Fold this protein.
Amino acid sequence: MAIERGYWNSTSVRRRGLQGTPDWKLLPILMAEDRTLVTKNSVDFRGPADAPGSKGLYGALDLHAGLICLNGPPGMDLDLQKTLFTIALDKLAALDNDLTNRVLDVTLDAEDGDIVLRLYDLPKP
């Protein structure tokens, strides 16, 4: 989907043969290649939603190319992931494709079914 939207350098852990690689081993690859990570494993990378940066791998970074967190119910299906990712891509374009030191949370609100976008700095300035 990202390639179709013009992000020609996009890739995935599956395409690179990195499925099953521990998060802490993916982080140095992301940093070395200056990549924005898209994940549904939000807590491991940004920490808990109510205290981003308090834990999580990105909380200790001084500089990163951005993090996109797709948040839905446990066992979120591929169709929902695609819906959330489409919304993330739209928002990324509106930000001139710059998420440097920022996190974009795209969350399906379990109570009312609305999709909520949250953009914030990490680390906090």
In short: The chain has three helices and four strands.
